C-alpha cells in the first residue's frame, strides 16, 4: 500500500519506520528534511510538500507538535487537504485541542474528504517496538480500511466512536492520568524519602504489588533514577496537554479540580528552568517543597 507520513519527530519517525518495516511504499515529508535521511536509505521517498505526499498515497498520517503546525500542515497552501483525493484518508495522530480537532473534522468534511483521528499512547521506545496503544475514531468504513495498517504501530486498536473528536478527547484524558499518576508518585517518593526510606525501595514495593502498570514501572523508574535529561516528552508538552484537557472540561461543563494541581506543578517546573526536561522532573518540585536537597 502507498502510505504517506508527515512529521518525523520523536514519535513520528519510529512510527514511519514501522510502516517501512512492514513493507509499505512510504512517502515522507518533514520540515527538517535531514530527519528523513535514514528512512530514505531504507527505501522511503522524501517529498517536498504535504500536498505532494497526499496526492500520491492511499493513506496519509500526520504527527505534528501542536495545533498551529497541525492546521498549517493540513489546510495551508501546500497542505494535506490540497492534495488529498476523495479515495484517500488523512489520519491525524497529533495531540491537539478539541477546537483544533473540530477544525480538522469539519474542514475535511467541507471538502468531501475522508478523515480519521488515531491517537497513540506510549513513549518513543514503545513506538520503535510497535507496542503503542492506538485510539481511533471516524467512519466505520475508514476504520475498517485502516486497521491492518494501524497494527504496524501496536496490537491494541481501540475504536472510540464515529466522531474523530472522541479519540482526541480520550487521548487528552489518558495523558492527564499519566501526569496525575506522576504527581502521586512524586508525593509518595518525597514523603518516604523524608522519613529515611530510599525511593528505590518504595518503587520496588510499588511495582512488585498492586501498582505495576507501565505508567508506574516506566515513569517511576525514571523518577527514582532522576533520569530527566533525555526527555521522551518535555515539561512544556505536558503543560500543553493538561491545559487542553482543562479546556475540554470547560467545553463540556465538567469540573476538573485535580487538573489544576497538575497544571500548577508543571508551571512551577517551567519557572524552575526545567521546561525542556522530561516531565517526570515534577518529582524535584515536590522534593524541594519538602525541604529535601
Automatic annotation (TrEMBL):
UniProt cross-references to InterPro entries, sorted A to Z: 3-OH-isobutyrate_DH-rel_CS (IPR002204), 6-PGluconate_DH-like_C_sf (IPR008927), 6PGD_dom2 (IPR013328), 6PGDH_NADP-bd (IPR006115), HIBADH-like_NADP-bd (IPR029154), HIBADH-related (IPR015815), HIBADH-related_NP60_sf (IPR051265), NAD(P)-bd_dom_sf (IPR036291)
**What residues does the 3-hydroxyisobutyrate dehydrogenase-like NAD-binding domain cover?**
167-283
Q: Does the keyword Transferase apply?
A: no
Question: Which positions fall inside the 6-phosphogluconate dehydrogenase NADP-binding domain?
Answer: 2-161
Q: Which UniProt keywords apply?
A: NAD, Oxidoreductase
Q: What is the top-level taxon of the source organism? A: Bacteria
Q: Tell me which PANTHER family the record gives.
A: CYTOKINE-LIKE NUCLEAR FACTOR N-PAC (PTHR43580:SF2), OXIDOREDUCTASE GLYR1-RELATED (PTHR43580)
**Listed name of the protein:** 3-hydroxyisobutyrate dehydrogenase
Organism of origin is Gluconobacter kondonii
Amino acid at each position: 500500500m502507498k502510505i504517506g507520513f508527515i512529521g518525523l519527530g520523536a514519535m513520528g519517525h519510529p512510527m514511519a519506520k514501522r510502516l517501512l518495516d512492514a513493507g509499505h511504499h512510504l512517502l515522507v515529508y518533514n520540515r527538517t528534511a535531514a530527519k528523513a535521511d535514514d528512512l530514505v536509505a531504507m527505501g522511503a521517498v522524501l517529498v517536498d510538500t504535504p500536498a505532494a505526499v497526499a496526492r500520491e498515497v492511499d493513506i496519509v498520517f500526520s504527527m505534528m507538535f501542536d495545533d498551529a503546525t497541525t492546521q498549517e500542515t493540513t489546510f495551508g497552501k501546500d497542505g494535506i487537504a490540497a492534495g488529498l483525493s476523495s479515495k484517500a484518508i488523512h489520519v491525524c495522530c497529533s495531540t491537539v485541542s478539541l477546537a483544533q480537532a473540530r477544525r480538522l473534522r469539519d474542514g475535511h468534511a467541507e471538502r468531501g474528504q475522508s478523515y480519521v483521528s488515531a491517537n497513540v499512547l506510549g513513549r518513543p521506545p514503545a513506538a520503535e517496538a510497535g507496542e503503542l496503544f492506538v485510539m481511533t475514531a471516524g467512519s466505520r468504513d475508514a476504520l475498517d480500511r485502516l486497521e491492518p495498517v494501524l497494527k504496524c504501530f501496536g496490537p491494541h486498536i481501540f475504536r472510540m466512536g464515529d466522531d474523530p473528536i472522541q479519540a482526541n478527547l480520550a487521548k487528552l484524558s489518558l495523558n492527564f492520568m499519566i501526569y496525575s499518576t506522576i504527581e502521586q508518585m512524586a508525593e509518595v517518593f518525597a514523603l518516604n524519602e523524608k522519613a529515611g526510606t530510599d525511593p528505590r525501595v518504595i518503587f520496588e514495593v510499588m511495582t512488585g504489588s498492586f501498582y505495576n502498570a507501565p505508567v508506574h514501572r516506566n515513569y517511576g523508574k525514571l523518577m527514582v533514577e532522576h533520569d530527566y535529561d533525555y526527555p521522551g516528552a518535555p515539561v512544556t508538552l505536558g503543560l500543553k496537554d493538561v491545559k487542553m484537557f482543562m479546556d475540554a472540561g470547560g467545553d463540556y461543563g465538567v469540573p476538573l479540580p485535580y487538573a489544576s494541581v497538575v497544571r500548577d506543578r508543571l508551571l512551577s517546573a517551567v519557572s524552575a528552568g526545567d521546561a525542556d526536561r522530561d516531565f517526570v522532573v515534577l518529582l524535584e518540585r515536590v522534593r524541594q517543597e519538602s525541604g529535601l536537597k
